Known about the structure:
By secondary structure, this protein is an alpha/beta fold. The protein has two domains: 4-187 and 359-370, Rossmann fold (3-Layer(aba) Sandwich); 204-356, Rossmann fold (3-Layer(aba) Sandwich), CATH 3.40.50. Helices cover 39% and strands 16% of the residues. It contains 16 helices and 16 strands. It has helices spanning 19-27, 46-50, 52-56, 81-101, 134-137, 145-158, 167-177, 216-223, 240-250, 263-272, 284-288, 292-299, 310-315, 326-338, 343-351, 358-370, and strands at 4-8, 32-36, 40-41, 61-64, 67-70, 73-74, 106-111, 126-130, 161-164, 182-183, 204-207, 229-232, 255-257, 275-278, 304-307, 320-323. The strands form three sheets. Strands 4-5-2-1-7-8-9-10 form an eight-stranded mixed sheet, with helices on both faces. α8 (216-223) crosses α14. It is globular.
Amino acid sequence: MNGTIVYISGGHWNGVPGTDRLLAEALSAHAEVLWFDQPVSIARDPDLRRNTIPSLQGVAEKVAPSVGRVRLPALPGFSRPLIRRTTEAIARWTIQSAVGKNTRGLVAVVNSSPLVQFPRGLTVPRLLHLTDDWLASAELMGLSRRHVERVLRSNIAAADIITAVSPTLALKISEFSSRKVEVIPNGCRVLVPIDRQAVRQPIAVLVGQLNERLDFAALRALGRTGLPVVVLGPRTEREPSARKSLDEFLSQPNVQWHGEVPPAEVARVLRMAAVGLTPYTSSEFNRSSFPLKTLEYLAAGLPVVSTDLPATRWIDSEFIKTAATSHDFVELVRSALLTPPTGEQGRDIQASAQGHTWGARAVELLSLLGGHQSTEPVREPAPRHIGST
């Protein structure tokens, strides 16, 4: 695909690589990508302050061979009612400035931000990609649910195509919007072949952000067993109860927490471990989510022990064991540690993730864009009110 894809993200390029960055990187193999960060206060980010003027001028920073990044600066308290309009105006100005400097021609706009509306006046296909249940998670993100819903309604009305990361979320948004919603799940990185002679250690590994999404009952039970667990990822909890639970789990002598580490270190630990963990609570938000870690474990040749989630059932892999209770979770982990996968078994596990790479997801998304010919947004009846969470 020749030209440029505008990607309005729900995160920041230099943050923990998540759905947006990994999908954008995969898209950049097919087209230039003009990436926009989520708005952030200039008071909180020194790097943003240094780049405020270039950002407002729409000057893109080269962050990958085919990716240019533009920050969206915002005033302090940008999510507060009296400042939101200013935040939106700055975002519109910055995006229009950057798009105006593009010389390759736009081919599509992908918007996966819960806060930024589609830019006006562009006659290319507009795809709204919901990476999480933003309405259910507004408070978790420190945002106004009413404001998030207002932006979501606006973007649904402007979108030509709507996609979501899980069947549960797709159904929810379809009922909310009276629109068809396609499913483009999360993916995994390119698979690195496993050595047939590889020997794994009887260690369980948990990768990712540590916050209220986790099933603390399962983690407490696991921490008290003495089974060796390595945890890689930053703490991002907000609630005192979650802080207390994480303190208890991470302080266990059998649990090694290394915080946020480089991707190379994550890959090294995944190559040596025996089982990957996806211990998420059955909240409304989690039921609509698609955990990145599960496919990353499979891509590294690791079997997985997970709590019961719709996304886990969708993957439908024999190498994922699901637990209905904390006791079941612990026993499944114990069993996995008794029989770490051999090199050959690891290759079989890895092969099961072959169709789930981010490259495959990018092709799915481009296929949807390629099948849309209209340059005007679909106008549907106003979305119905969605129930409170």
